[in-house]
Amino acid sequence: MELNIVGRPLLIVISGPSGVGKDALLHEMRKSRLPLHFVVTVTTRTRRRGETDGSDYHFISRSEFERMIDEGELLEWANVYGNYYGVPKKDLQQALGKGLDAVVKVDVQGSANIKRILPEAVFIFVAAPSISELKERLKQRKTESSIDLELRIKAAEEEMGSLPMFDYVIVNYEGELEKAVSEIEAIITAEKCRVRARSIEI
User: Fold this and answer.
1) Coil, strand or helix: which one is 18?
2) Cβ(14)–Cβ(105) under 8 Å?
3) 18-66: per-residue pLDDT in tens?
4) How much is the pTM?
5) What distance in Å separates the CA atoms of residue 34 and residue 30, rounded to the nearest whole number?
6) Shortest CA distance to 69 belongs to which of 50, 87, 51, 53?
7) In which domain, by residue range, is 133 found?
8) For the segment 61-92, what is each residue's pLDDT rounded down to a tens digit?
9) Is residue 6 a part of any domain in this protein?
10) Is position 3 within any domain?
């Protein structure tokens, strides 16, 4: 009997509270030996220093974002801290159509939305070693006002309660970024070895 074992492309959802290092992880993952396609989120928030339009995010106007909602161009979207964030559907469809594993970075709210739409995606929660260290990372980032900082810290504490929704958790220790990336690569490799492959249809 001949077996036709061909792994289907995966949708890998990277999530976690603000300040755990999701952007740094994605930046390092782009150097990976794995053939991954990184879906760039669209947002209405202001671009921060060091961010590149089209790489970190697609920075668009509120009116353009609302047009994308109306025309069904977003897989999921959410209002986070007064700004819109969304995952463009077309980019994801094209990547999966080519047989590429697609990586999406969203907040915990976005993960919950995707879980309802595509439960067969691979959900990875990125965490800091402790809430106290997470608070320190957010303070060092210096991108929020004191009020916004407190909101993000409170949200992070609540988001830790969403852990059971995810398939895996990665602890991103300070100075050990490569280790965290290796763990994500190991998860992807293991998923490719599943007897029952995940099926993603958009």
Assistant:
1) coil
2) yes
3) 888 898 999 999 988 788 999 999 999 999 888 889 888 999 999 999 9
4) 0.86
5) 9
6) 87
7) 11-192
8) 999 999 999 999 999 998 887 899 999 999 99
9) no
10) no
* Closest of 101, 102, 100, 61 to residue 84, by C-alpha: 61
- Kindly report the CATH number assigned to the domain that includes residue 60: 3.40.50.300
* In a domain? residue 198: no
Question: What number of residues does the chain have?
Answer: 202
Task: Please report the DSSP string for 73-131 in residue order.
Answer: -EEEEEEETTEEEEEEHHHHHHHHHTT-EEEEE--HHHHHHHHHH-TTSEEEEEE-S-H
Structure tokens belonging to residue 136: 């320190």
**201 in any annotated domain:** no
- What's the half-sphere exposure (Cβ side, CA atoms, 13 Å) at 175? 0
Residue among 136, 131, 122 at smallest CA distance from 186: 122
| Structure tokens belonging to residue 115 | 């879980």
Neighbouring residues of 10: CB distance < 8 A, sequence distance ≥ 6:
101, 102, 121, 122, 188, 191, 192, 198, 200
For the chain, how many structural domains are there in total? 1
Lowest mean pLDDT of 109-123, 124-138, 158-172, name the range: 124-138
User: What single-letter amino acid sits at 69?
Assistant: I
Contacts of 74 (CB under 8 A, 6+ apart): 42, 68, 86, 87, 88, 89
d(Cα 189, Cα 202) in Å, to the nearest integer? Answer: 23
